[in-house]
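Posting here for the record, re: S-adenosylmethionine.
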Amino acid sequence: MKRPEAIVVGCSAGGLDALKILLAGLDPQLSQPVLVCCHSGADTVELLCELLARASTLPVVEAVERTPPRGGVVHVAPSGYHLLVEADGCFALSTDPRVSHARPSIDVLFGAAADVWRQALIGVVLTGANADGAQGLLQLRRNGGCAIVQSPADAVAKTMPQAALDIAGADHCVPLDAVAPLLNRLCCP
Amino acid sequence: MSDTPDNPDLENIEIELFVRAMQLRHGYDFSQYAPASLKRRVRHLAVQLDGGSISALTHRLLHQQAVLPQLLEGLSVPVSDMFRDPSVFRLLREQVLPVLASYPHINIWQAGCAHGEEVYSLAILLEEAGLYERSRIYATDLSASALHQAEEGIYSAREAQQWSRNYQDAGGTRSLADYYSARYDLLKLDRRLRRHVTFAQHNLVSDRVFCEAHLVLCRNVLIYFSNPLQDRCLQLFRDTLVRGGFLCLGMRESIDAAGTAVDFNPVDAGLRLYRRSSDVLSAKPLPAA
Ligand SMILES: C[S@@+](CC[C@H](N)C(=O)[O-])C[C@H]1O[C@@H](n2cnc3c(N)ncnc32)[C@H](O)[C@@H]1O
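Prediction output follows.
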């Protein structure tokens, strides 16, 4: 794998707590942007950002269209919109129909990010009660990216990580506690 | 690099050829759409119509005239809701309509009206404010089939609950059910709501100013456009609006990068409501698209 340039994270049921643990463990010197798609946990993206920011070692902001992700910053997809990344590296949003009942959809974010960053992308699938993310992770792996999936046995809701493993497979399948240390190791060698 | 269908460079070439063919064959220019969403939509159409092959889709669009409406519908994806983002409609009701009330005739342009959900939402607001008799709503979209459905005003009854909640949250004083009749699993909006609406095809990429308006509502359309096309549309809206006229965009749209943004003053930046400033120096001519 190439030196990672970005990290995408997807989760659903149980995702808020899982994200808090993940973001609390990230190296504050991390130089890659972190893009997050989380279906549940808070009514508005403002609240979600606030809750995550309290736990995170890195600043947490809403992803804004036509602006580039910044290294060492966590960008969260706004509710009701799909979040994508353009080839020029800027964020784009869409109100296209839900994908696997979800908007924002993890598949959409991972798919777009995989097109842009290819081998330089790390994708993380955490707890969730549906199969969103599996197709996106498959696309990410086909483009040479690195896939990390939370061990289903360790997840509050195992459907999402299990679907990811079944459909896409993973380069690393680890418990939640081990995800941040692994990311730190892959990103700041 | 291999020639597998997974080769991303090859796919980008196929998409570029598709877009070019669409322009040369049918005159629709999608080259300035934001590429990531456009790519998803073209892929989706290819799966629907041609087993996933974009080249086969391009071949079909070149040789089969009849497929055009379906392509346009697929590329434009008219998704909407009544009173989507209720806080915006509340703002329109409480702050915009009282200003519009001072005009003898009120012109509103709704650009990218999809299946008309927001058109009827606006008509209801105007009706309840006692302004509808002197209003005209121009509802435009790229897609003829979307416009056709907008004129029908028939929707799935599954939406009724969410839309009623939206209507209440937007400050509605009656019941949304007063405005539609439900039958089987469909709901049909009161035809009277249409009496001051003109539906028309208008392409934001290539068409020009066609009216003078006091309010332009264009939500979640420019998000699909690249920066230069977004700016072109903002010029179009500026040149359509009277001085002090209102512009309402989608809640997550950002116009900070657009040169024309200086011609609009925020009324409520969070809800993306702006007014055309009165000291626009020169309305620059629109660049040919
Ligand atoms: C996501 S819908 C927005 C519907 C509604 N305004 C809302 O926010 O709920 C986008 C609409 O823009 C229309 N559209 C896309 N490209 C256009 C163009 N070049 N000119 C006019 N309308 C266009 C599409 O057909 C679609 O109906």
